[in-house]
Write a structure and sequence with these properties.
heterodimer, A: 479 residues, mainly alpha, Ammonium transporter fold, 15 helices, 0% strand, B: 112 residues, alpha+beta, Alpha-Beta Plaits, two-stranded antiparallel sheet
Chain lengths: 479, 112
């Protein structure tokens, strides 16, 4: 009885399968091209879509895919990456910077990080995402996605084929948050909280949203990969220009306009906790995997390469900076290792998914040397009080990283480099020039506006007592 | 009565304390302080900014003793705190006008 049934079942199954194949193939032959809705996919097309998912490539065109939404693997990595980048700001950067200031200002750093996170999120939701990634022109988007209108969690394509549009918006938000937060390093210990918030709000519109648009949107002026008509065909994997150069150069301008801390150069102002600084550094390193590998927009080979290049550059730069200090200054310091690691992470950022692992080693060595020189010698020579070395590490490092990306970008690592390789170094240099000029001019203008409206600097007695008690009514350490 | 104020190197505190308790001086007050005499500070470098740190961590011990015990107490402190290197510290002896034990209300020598 059982044997009979199983044989029957097999025959029945085979019949049904053949009938299915015949009927779908007949349906294909019958359907006309023009007015009909996207055709029902064949089994082969459905299989091709699944393969596209695994390979992080495009679905079969003109077919109603059975998997039109986000692909779980890639979208999960996108979610983790976004969380990691938020982690970079809170508490990674907060602790990294917090440990570097004097005890009486530690809370001001934490409050500025958290205040910026909230403020930028509100702006991003309201209009920022739209200005960055809406259509618009080559320099800024439009208001099509205001209030995240039209951004659907179940839709894909705004970022890449297999990640949720909502996740794309949130991932990009995490970048929008950390970029202005980097600036607070340069103006630490002397800028009023209200001034920081007003400055950041204006800066997002004047600098960040335009740059995110120019470099990463499909209509952007410097979006070499996505925009065939881009004026400058530059590439930036995770934000060398958009994040580090804009914040670094803006920071330099702002700290010069703000002036030096009272007593700078005479009174000692050593970091109050290199322990916190180190904790923050570790968090930045781990979080940076979301920043760089997450910018591959999928859990694929490019992401893996970015993960590897990020690791090599960070570790080697940290080591080189420590060794450089040992040789030139007498001790390898904890602050040196921390600074070197961050410098490595900054410099590899624009090229993480474009350069080979061996190139990353070279980049790491350079990242441990050039920002080190900027911080140890250039700052003293030029005399500006970049309190936590935002310009020295992010400005100088980001610029060098963008240029090195032009040198080391390899189409064998990432095929999108291929058509752009010729003339890439020149394009990168042009992108750097535009970024520097735009950031500097915008910051000068905004700083003057903020100064006129709310002032920039805390009163001298507030500065000497520490910002925490006056601006926030709290002490970081009690007893 | 006298108040002995001794500034010593922090790692010597345990030895000085044991020396004093072995001669039956039971109570003392200890404070962490900073200071310098002839001992030079050191240079610290943070990312290219050099600081000369003049103030060095020290420990201040205050003990109230009867006049008869002063010389012996000073000797014990000096012997235990001495390393022979610059920065060993100093001992000051000041007149103590009055002492009161709060719990019992005793005053004078029976309070110390």
């Amino acid at each position: 009885m059982k044997l009979f049934l199983s044989r029957f079942a097999r025959h029945l199954f085979a019949f049904l399968l053949i009938a299915c194949a015949l009927s779908t193939s007949q349906a294909q032959e019958a359907s006309p091209a023009a007015a009909a809705p996207p055709a029902e996919p064949t089994v082969e097309q459905r299989l091709a879509d699944l393969e596209a998912y695994v390979n992080n490539t495009a679905r079969t065109p003109d077919v109603a895919s059975k998997i039109p939404g986000p692909g779980p693997g890639h979208n999960a990595w996108q979610m983790v990456s976004t969380a990691l980048v938020i982690f970079m700001t809170l508490p990674g950067l907060a602790l990294f910077y917090g440990g570097l200031v004097r005890k009486q200002n530690v809370l001001s750093v934490l409050a500025q990080c958290m205040g910026i996170a909230g403020l930028v999120t509100i702006l991003w939701w309201a209009i920022g995402y739209s200005l960055a990634f809406g259509g618009g022109n080559a320099f800024i988007g439009d208001a099509a996605y205001a209030f995240l209108n039209g951004v659907n969690p179940g839709a894909v394509g705004a970022g890449y084929y297999w990640i949720s549009d909502s996740m794309w918006a949130m991932f990009q938000l995490s970048f929008a948050i950390i970029t202005p937060a980097l600036i607070i390093g340069a103006i630490a210990e002397r800028m009023k909280f209200i001034s920081v918030l007003v400055f950041v709000a204006l800066w997002m519109f004047a600098v960040y949203f335009p740059f995110a648009h120019m470099v990463w949107s499909t209509t952007g002026f410097m979006s070499g990969i996505l925009n065939a008509g881009a004026g400058i065909k530059a590439i930036d994997f995770a934000g060398g220009t958009v994040v580090h150069m804009t914040s670094g150069w803006s920071a330099l301008v702002l700290c010069i306009m703000l002036g030096k801390r009272n007593g700078f150069g005479k009174a000692p102002m050593p970091p109050h906790s290199l322990v916190l600084c180190t904790v923050g550094t570790g968090m930045l390193w781990v979080g940076w995997y979301g920043f760089n590998a997450g910018s591959a927009l999928g859990a694929d080979a490019i992401a893996s390469n970015a993960f590897a290049t990020t690791t090599l550059a960070a570790a080697i730069a940290g080591f080189v900076w420590g060794m450089a200090e040992w040789v030139l200054k007498g001790h390898p310091s904890v602050l040196g290792f921390c600074s070197g690691i961050v410098a490595g992470l900054v410099v590899i950022t624009p090229g993480a998914g474009f350069v080979s692992m061996n190139s990353a080693v070279i980049i790491g060595v350079l990242a441990g040397i050039v920002p080190f020189l900027a911080v140890s010698y250039l700052k003293k020579v030029l005399g500006y009080d970049d309190a936590l070395d935002t310009f020295g590490v992010h400005g100088v490092g980001g610029t060098m990283g963008a240029i090195l990306t032009g040198v080391f970008a390899d189409e064998k690592i990432n095929s999108v480099v291929g058509p752009l390789k010729e003339g890439l170094l020149v394009a990168q240099l042009k992108a750097c020039a535009l970024t520097i000029v735009w950031s500097v001019v915008a910051t000068v203008v905004i700083a003057f506006i903020v100064k006129a409206v709310v002032g920039l600097r805390a009163a001298p007695e507030v500065e000497s007592a520490g910002l925490d008690t006056s601006e926030h009514g709290e002490e970081g350490y009690i007893g | 009565m006298k108040l002995i104020i001794a500034i010593i190197k922090p790692f010597k505190l345990e030895e000085v304390k044991e020396g004093l308790t072995s001669m039956n001086i039971e109570g003392m007050t200890v404070t962490e302080v900073k200071g310098f005499g002839r001992q030079k500070g050191h240079v610290e470098i943070y990312r290219g900014s050099e600081y000369t740190v003049d103030f060095l961590p020290k420990v201040k011990i205050e003990i109230a003793v009867e006049d008869a015990e002063v010389a012996a107490a000073v000797k014990v402190i000096a012997d235990k705190a001495r390393t022979g290197k610059i920065g060993d510290g100093k001992i000051f002896v000041v007149d103590l006008l009055e002492a009161v034990r709060i719990r019992t209300g005793e005053s004078g020598e029976s309070a110390i």
